[in-house]
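note to self: the first set is below, dont mix up w the second
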Amino acid sequence: MARFPGVDYISFDSLLSEQELLVRQTARRFVDEQVLPVVREAYNSGTFPSRLVAELGGLGFLGANLEGYGCAGMNNIEYGLIMQELERGDSGLRSFASVQGALVMYPIHTYGSDEQKEYWLPRLQSGQAIGCFGLTEPDFGSNPAGMRTTAEKRGTQWLLNGEKTWITNGSIADVAVVWARTSDGVRGFLVERGTPGYSTSDIHGKLSMRASVTSSLHFSGCAIPESNQLPCAKGLKAALGCLSQARFGIGWGALGAAMDCYETARSYTLARRQFDERPVASHQLVQEKLAWMITEISKGQLLAYHAAKLKDSGKIDPSHISMLKRNNVSVALECARLSRDLLGANGIMDEYPIMRHMCNLESVKTYEGTDHIHTLVIGERVTGIPAYR
């Protein structure tokens, strides 16, 4: 299988340190050698390539930007480059890593007790345990404040009742980070697989994110001990803080899908000959599409790089992450559509990755804050007026 040559029109690599380049090269090699040979079949069969989990852990890619407990302690540029390469392989694999690191390990690391951290983080980092994040409900996606899942204190236990849905990793997770309404506001809890009153069911019939496990979580009189409450996870703001971590990774990851589509189209149009045996790439309309794609990818790289610098310096705002996620996912989706157009009928074939990326990106545009919600976050930032209702 051919090695991915990379996409760097503006000498973006000159901004990266030797260590950052090494991290990206390691992730790139992993995707080329381990992911691409299996991902087409995984997508077609609707199965998650679970054997890759241990590999991700062994490379330090799970919770890569966290400190301690076996985590790699990478900076956010390195973390972003990992997400970029994983999504170049498939959005489902990047989603797994995002959920594991940003939505499960991060809340335990940030809001958990010492005992919770010491027990779960090494297991999650290595891939020995898998986690999921339970916030979205059947009736409340963009408005998590309306959640109906409740947790009621009963002596030394909490009783959970309710349902979460569209949960990545749900049925394969050893532990779920679950957000529920209590008499003291929204709180976070760790619910372990096998707890009585806790069950999962997979969502079938997906035409997107097929190489990813998507589930519903059900709680009926689910009793968990007081020690499973995240002691510092108080209020909906704590849950939204986790989403900011994941959205940052999505902003980088979408570039990987865009790069794969662009490079597929560029290579194809150079090799494909029509009209007096001229390369399709010699035509003006084709070059206009390639020029648009490489320009927008390059702008997206700079946005992602600056956001990572802001994050490392502690100066990033959730509205910055909204711009990153909204812009780069939109660019990636348009790159997929333009690339499909440039490949003609071949663009719909699974021999090429374009339709798989396109279908996946339709979900990426929606989850962890829809394009519209991030538009309103940016709008509130520039006007001071919330327009969500």
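second set (the one i keep forgetting abt)
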Amino acid sequence: MPENGASIWPMIIFLVAIFAVMYFLMIRPRQKQQQQHDEMTKELRVGDKVIIAGGIYGEIESLAEDTAILKIESGATMRVARASIVGRQDIGETDRRVF
């Protein structure tokens, strides 16, 4: 009987190790990325040039708690969810760097 109890510990240690690896390789990086996105959306200001999840570039005309009004190149405006804004365009930068 003691042999069965002793042989379960390596399996428990292995499962804990697998969970730890999954946490540090998958869960933690996603949490950090989500935190950075939340900070970016809080720091948005009128006049910022942004890109939304659909690939549309625009300039923020006004902000509300959950939405933003973007002016796009054609002069049209559109209301988008703040959470759909994936990044800011740096002024003077021509490449498509999002993060």
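remember for set 2: The chain has a mean pLDDT of 87.
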